[in-house]
């Protein structure tokens, strides 16, 4: 029987792997047969993710992606140990809601640093000789907020939208090197972070947000499936695209 | 973060137009709406690492009540 989602023998790096979508993506990819290099800042939480992976040969790497200029050399030394990567998932991100009235350059820069600058430098590192296999796939976690506006999240929307443009141009630039580049744009999914946010809202306000998703809130696994698809053979002819996984949020 | 510094940031968030003293009624501040509410949650998380619940925030009637939530710990 053929499993088009099979990732046996592949090596994939996942950033933001200590929680939420990043963690679940790593778990799913391992269940599909991939060896995973987990990356995040929090060692204890990274160890929890590592312990929840299926199969053998995974590793956890504590690294602060805000040190953007060090990313390419760090990736070079990492892949000297893991072997060339078949895929990379950039799930790390910063999401502090901030109405325009309190948005300042410091807050803006903290979002841009991880969501955009780190994404660019990860791609730069990934394309280096010896860091990726002949046919490889890069996936950026964008957001449905890049496609549909919401009050209070202008910085987040702007940076997630920037990833869509970044992926399209990188797809053009890296196609000749065998690297596909795509985005996944999730709507609101139930995770530790969103549960914290929703607990702070009145039940009416939380229900109003869920009502904007015709299929209700998603789960992290709904997003992980989309990432896995974009990493595998089933998507070999897809590059520069955005896979929207939002329960209908942007279909209005 | 100092009380005065947080008060100044709250003033910007709530579009107070003049320095807040703390005694202001939230009901009288036009910008204490859903956006102000979410912004306050974000400030509490960013500066104090606090995850506030809807019940805690909804009990607040004045700016001082908001301050008490974040400076209580």
Provide the gyration radius of chain B in Å: 11 Å
Instruction: Describe the oligomeric state of these chains in a short phrase.
Output: heterodimer
Contiguous runs where pLDDT drops below 50 for at least 5 residues of chain B: none
Residues in β-strands, percent of chain B:
under 5%
Largest sheet of chain A: 7 strands, parallel
Identify the CATH homologous superfamily of chain B: ACP-like
Judging from the principal axes of the Cα atoms, what is the shape of chain A? globular
Number of helices of chain B: 4
CATH hierarchy: architecture of chain A = 3-Layer(aba) Sandwich
How many domain units of chain B? 1
Overall helicity of chain A: 40-55%
Classify the fold: give the CATH topology of chain B: Non-ribosomal Peptide Synthetase Peptidyl Carrier Protein, Chain A
Please tally the β strands of chain A and state the result: 9
- Briefly note the structural class of the backbone of chain B: mainly alpha
Account of the protein in words:
The complex is a heterodimer of chains A (252) and B (73). Chain A is an alpha/beta fold. Chain A has a single domain (11-245), classed as 3-Layer(aba) Sandwich (Rossmann fold). In chain A, 42% of the residues lie in helices and 19% in strands. Chain A contains 8 helices and 9 strands. In chain A, helix 1 (20-31) links the parallel strand 1 and strand 2. The longest helix of chain A has 22 residues, at 105-126. Chain A is globular and about 50 Å long. Chain B has 73 residues and is an all-alpha fold. Chain B has one domain (3-71): Non-ribosomal Peptide Synthetase Peptidyl Carrier Protein, Chain A (Orthogonal Bundle). At the A-B interface, helix 6 of A face helix 1, helix 2 and helix 3 of B.
